[in-house]
Structure of SnoaL-like domain-containing protein:
Amino acid sequence: MTLEDLLAREAIRDVMAKYTTSGDRLRIDDFVSCFTQDAVMESEHVPADRMFRYEGRAEIRAWQERWLRGEGGTHGATFVRHHLSTSKIDLTGPDTAKARTYWVAWTDIGPDHAGYYLDTFRKVGDDWLIAHRRVRMDWEADASLFRSAISNSNT
């Protein structure tokens, strides 16, 4: 492993942390800046009424703005904290990488839902950005505050 490899991995970890903290805090500009202009963010392996797919920064921004406005009764949580754990980052080229990262979301009820991200990253200029994020949910609490939130915040 080279110094460049280490720097790339750390930059990717930093983008993942920025995505998580800005998403939980609804810092939309910071959240959207984690993605390439043509990024895709989509769910997989969830019930049909909770599937989503957003293409490009504009659609990702619009989705986050709906959350910020609270449209559709997004959820009843007074706080949301996504925690990232194991992350396997594979550099696939000088400007590309793939990652699998486990996450769990905590809300007022404690552990609310959990799963993993399957990501493709692309280096744009000096920045590593998310080009494609597949969100997979493995588990949710019976009383999950997000059970209806995703379907209510879709377009």
Q: What stands out?
A: The two ends are 44 Å apart (CA to CA). The first strand starts at residue 35 and ends at 44. The chain has a mean pLDDT of 91.
